[in-house]
Amino acid sequence: MDVYPADYLVHNLPLVVLSGLASSSQDQELASYEYPLLQENGVRISSELPLVTSPSADPLLRCFLEVDASHSPWSSRTFKDAVGSIRFRVKVVGRDIIFPPRKASPPPGFSPASTPSAASTPRELHSPLSPLSPSSALFPDGVMSPLWVTKHQHLLPSVFISFFTLTADANLSTLHDNQLKTEINDIKKIFAASSYKTRFVAVILSEKSILEAPDIDERLANVRKATGLDPKNSLFFLPPNLSPVELRAFVQSLFSTLQPLCIEYYRDLSKHSRRKRNRGAIPLPTAPPTSGTSQTLAIHGWNVRYEFKLGVLAEFRQEMDAAGRNFEGAYEGLLGQDVFESIASWSPRWNEARLLADAIAIRILRCLLWNGQTTSASRRWRAHRDRMRDLVDRRGKGSVNYGWEAWESRWATIMAELIQKSELPIFNITNIPKGAEVTLAPSIYSPPEKAFPVGERLPPWELLHHPGYWFNIATRHLYERRVLAEAIPDEDRKPPEQPRPSGRANIYDTYLCPEPSIEYPLSPQVGVDHSGLILESIRRTIREFEQRGQTRTIERLKLELAQEEMRAGSWGSALKILRPLWTGMSWRKEGWLDLVAVVGWATRECASHVGDGGHVIGPEWELMSNCFAPRPAWQYNLAKCLDGLETVKSKPTVVLRAGDVISFYTHHLPVSANYAFKNAESHVGDLLASQLVVTSSAQAGSLPVVLSEIRLSYDGGLKTVFLRHRTPSASASTAGKSLKLVEVTLRDAIPSNDSPLTAGSQHSPGKTYLVGYTDLTFHPGQAKIFSFAAMLREAGDARVVSTTFSMAANLFDVDYVLAFNENDSTGVWWTENQGVLRKKRLGRERTGVVKILPKPPKMQIRVLDMKKQIYTNERVVVNVEVVNEEDGETEASLEVRILGDFEMAPTLSWTQQSEAPPREKELEDSEARLDELSVISLPGHVIGKLVPSAKTVETFSFHTTSVTADYILELRVLYHLLSDLDTPISKTLTINLPVVGPFEANYDFSPRVHPDRWPTYFRIGDVLEPENGDGKGPTTASGIAQKWCLTARMASFAVESLIIERVDLPVLGVNGGVTCSIAHEDLDKARALEISPSEIEEARFLLDIKKFSLEDRRSATLDLALSIHWRRKEEGAELNTSTLAVPRLLVPSSEPRVLASTRYSSAIPSLIHLDFTIENPTMHLLTFNITMEANDEFAFSGPKLSSLQILPISRHTIHFNLLPSVRGAWIQPQLKVVDRYFNKTLRVSATEGMRTDKTGILVWVDADG
To answer: DSSP label at 1149?
Structure first.
């Protein structure tokens, strides 16, 4: 757009002038506009008042400049903010400003219309820009000048804001206020005299606030009355010491108030232009044209002029729809038969009309893009291009010249810049969230707008594409411009001062472009920099395409950019572009080999000029592949590719990878480089055979390539293999053979500083590798099969990872790395029989992968005398027999591990502890399968050397814990043959050991009647426990004694009979101030007994519990454990102890209770003596109602109904005799004991020989009683 007048194309905004805030270089600015008679006849406004210098002046100015939208995008979305629906152009001036004159100067002999004469027609003065003024550049038949837009955009504001200071000095306030009134009235008079409708606004900045100076209101009122300014929209007051936020709010409020005034100002101008257009008559010029052939502008030209003005004024009001309609009318009128068609192509008015047509078309495009009519904008762009081509072909100098191509390029560039300035959301890169997916990427083109029916098929060129598309079109036309410029004959390229053939001056279209002598001058003159124009256009195109990720177009454009740099001789700049392009272009992967070749040769040429040897070798290596078309008259010799290049100063080292370049050693069509293992599985210690097939697909006729070495890298337990070049003898040469099987013998080697390793074959110091020597000379089309075998040393999965082809020449080193596909199943195995090579498919999916199994161990492990079942709290002794069935003598050690999910670890120990050898690190991977379990291991036990068929027995033991668990016993023998110390071998035996508890028990805790007498209430003081002399408490238990019985029923969960030696009931803890003694109820059962599987045995324990103090009423608790001492039923079995938990026992001692006891009569066998003992451990006298209920099952003698009083701390026994009527059954006597005071029924507790249920006690009656 730079070649067009800026005011023709700029987006018009209401002009607001700020006067008095800052100074400006007004004279230089006015001189740059070149407006006629501006200095001579302009309306000058000046003031003697100083500029505003208050502290708020600079911040206020910055706030005003923030509103300036001169450089804002041409989009309606950026104009919707806090200041209103439109934006403004803010211009800062000092105290002096000049407005353009309204009328031109009168010509000589001018006769005003007010004094007509009979001899002449009355005439009047017109605007200096009007075609009716003789001094105007448009006189007499010009249509429009950009100076009219300059007048309203830069010189004539819609609002003139003047800033003044309201002084705070009381002595000078009256004088300054009078000066202020005079100044404002003078400015208003100047505006009134000039007939301009610019709105005048005064902003008064006070030095003090109203609180500090109360007379400010009165002074402001006087100013308003004297000046007649409306305080609503013409006079504003700004107090001092405002914050930036308050200043910004003031500015926004001011512009919101001025917005309707600005719109009304430009609407009045539109009404004035519309009235003049509707008159339908041409005004008389100030003076008639002097030339005989000159004529004034026709009515159709005046209509074009008025429509253009209306469009610009509508754009000032931001009414883009109305502006577009006016510009459409101006465009059609301009290119109609009555205006453009009537202008001669040799006339300067022709180019002026073309310039105006382009400007109107650009403004139409801006209006369409402003309103989102993208498809209409694309159509309009093409319509204007086609219409102008038709016009210049019919009436101009044709479209086959460099001038037309320059215009085509410029027109496409304008469209791209319009799209950029419009910032359409669909093309806006800034709207894409960071890290968004590809589906959210900016669009390449805009879909049709809603005005087009859904489903209508539109050509793709009618859809609006992103700016890069239009920049690319401009680049194409720049190429054509250069071609046509270079075709200009020498006689037309001569400077203007030199003679040229007549009649050729007007055959070139020079619209907005230079003459042929400047476009493409004869040397040594400098003309148009076509390469610079093309390079800049390509760069702008690339930026747009890169933002949208269009990879293929970007690569094509970068190639064009590099070729243009090469054409200009900028080899370094071209190489900077080609380096990343050659490495990462997509054409290589997609098979566009012709383009790959073009990039390769260009990269090589640039690198040769710059001296970049690395980028000479890389393309040379790639271009040797026969998949590219051979270059005529080019000698393919990789070893000599740097010979003669004096620009290469140092020896380069290049590393190439198969994914980055095409090579004559890769698997790219039609060549191959494959690797295969002969077997899918093998064992440690075996020789594993493998083959590497290398095929050279170099260009036919190229010289042989001699590699220095081939390196094979593996993942797993295989060593790196180096195949190094050795020059063969004449008899062993394979130059004439296209396929050759080569057997290579490998040997171990350790790298050293003087090892002949190339740059790409660095190896870890001290780590051995395998090396073999063979002929590595490859002729074009030749394939070699390298067959070799390597000893396997480590178990595990292994695969071939990559192969590196290294070439060490005199001037360079190059490594080519080829990574193998792990899932490659195309590998074959080659064999040779009597000179004939045959191949055989291996028939497996992954031929480059081998599974190395550990060497099969022949050492045998057996466990002797292992128990069927392991119990908790048991010491287990394990005898392990190790038998050497290897063919040679071995040296071994035994490791024992117990794995399981346990909290308390079992303890392990050898019967004879020996020093543990270091753990073999190579076998630690076998533990990974059990890494989630807890592991308890013994140190390695040295077995020592074992001759073949020798055996040894090793013994260890461990103690199981008291918690049941599933153990895993792992026995592992680590050994190696004395004949092969580098190959560790292991033999593992795993045994599952479920550990169970041998016993389980449940418990019954019941009371008994204590045989001791209770203390008497009448001598209670004698039984109170005396204290020690030191006051530390009782020495002996003197409280109430109770007897309880704990019955433990033990069940055997063993799978075999066990011997229970004894059962104990140890006391773990006593709480509640009591003493407790425990004894077996039946001493006979306390002896050893045999318990069979699932059998239940009982053990009864009598507990004597006595309080330390008679006054202690607390309940007591007992913590006990059941200890079962048992052993297996075999000789010499160790005694084990299993401890079972007993629930905490509660012993109440503060409540009364009733105990029932029975015994059979010694005199009458069927008579049962039933006693009920009522205990009162309290300090209260208790009265009970006792009722014995009758029953059909027995007869009884004793009190049926009675009342009993029991003294504190005493007990009483009630005797009953029962005569049962049944035999061999349980009878249920019901004694009801009720506390008379508390009305509480006491529960009767059964003692030995009795039972209880929900209803009461039960007494057994023998069948033979």
So the answer is: -
Residue 1216 bridge partners (DSSP): 1170
Q: Which residues contact 131 (CB under 8 A, 6 or more apart)?
A: 138, 139, 140, 141, 142, 143, 285, 296, 297, 301, 305
- Alpha-carbon distance of 305 to 34, in angstroms, equals 21
Regarding predicted confidence, which is higher, 941 or 770?
770
Question: Cα separations (Å) of 85 from 65, 76, 233, 255?
Answer: 18, 9, 18, 11
Distance CA(240)–CA(237), nearest Å, equals 10
pLDDT score for 670: 36
Kindly report which listed range (350-359, 426-435, 615-624) carries the lowest average pLDDT score. 426-435
The whole-angstrom separation of Cα 392 and Cα 817 is 61
Residue 1208 in tokens: 């504190």
Question: What's the rounded Cα separation, in Å, for the pair 466 and 450?
Answer: 19
Secondary element (H or E) of residue 364: helix 348-370
Please enumerate in sequence order all residues whose Cβ is within 8 A of that of 336, keeping only pairs 6 or more positions apart, or say none: 300
Is the distance from CB of 144 to CB of 326 less than 8 angstroms?
Answer: no
Residues 33, 30: Cα–Cα separation, whole Å: 5
When pLDDT is cut at 50, 70 and 90, the band that residue 1169 belongs to is very high
| Preceding peptide of 447 cis, ω within 30° | no
Pairing outcome for strands 1244-1246 and 783-791: unpaired
Cβ proximity of 220 and 239 under 8 Å: no
Cβ 619 vs Cβ 601: under 8 Å: yes
Beta-bridge partners for 397: none
Cα-based distances in Å from 987 to 286, 708, 894, 1055: 121, 45, 10, 32
Question: Nearest Cα to 511, choosing from 380, 363, 408?
Answer: 408
Tokens describing residue 382: 């093409």
Determine phi and psi for 1091, rounding to 5 degrees: -120, 125
Place of tokens 């073009």: 598
Residue 293, helix vs strand vs coil: coil
Contact criterion met (CB below 8 Å) for 180 and 124: no
Report the pLDDT value the prediction gives residue 442, as an integer from 0 to 100. 64
pLDDT tens across 139-153, in order? 888 899 999 999 999
pLDDT at 168: 82
Give the tokens for residue 159.
Answer: 């609002």
Which residue reads 């020079």 in tokens?
Answer: 510
Q: Which two tokens stand for residue 1111?
A: 């006054």
Inter-residue contact 772 to 721 (CB < 8 Å): yes
CA-nearest of 1070, 1086, 1087, 1067 to 1078 is 1067
Tokens of 1256: 């009461």
- Structure token pair of residue 619: 């393309």
- pLDDT for res 636: 92
pLDDT tens for 305-326 read 999 999 999 999 999 999 999 9
Distances (CA, A) of 538 to 718, 751, 1076: 53, 53, 105
Instruction: Please state the length of the chain.
Output: 1265
Measure the CA–CA gap between 673 and 666, rounded to whole angstroms.
Answer: 6
Which secondary structure element, helix H or strand E, spans residue 1217, and what is its range? strand 1210-1220
Contact 389, 447 (CB under 8 A): no
Binned at pLDDT 50, 70 and 90, residue 912 comes out as low
Q: Pick 86 or 291 by higher pLDDT.
A: 86
| Whether residue 1056 has pLDDT greater than 80 | yes
* Proportion of the chain above pLDDT 70, given as a percent: 89
Task: Give yes or no for a cis peptide into 1034 (omega within 30° of 0).
Answer: no
Q: Where are the alpha helices (DSSP H) in 521-626?
A: 530-547, 551-567, 571-584, 587-590, 593-610, 614-623
Structure tokens at 489: 């004959």
State the chain's mean pLDDT as an integer: 85
3-state secondary structure of 176: helix
3-state secondary structure of 313: helix
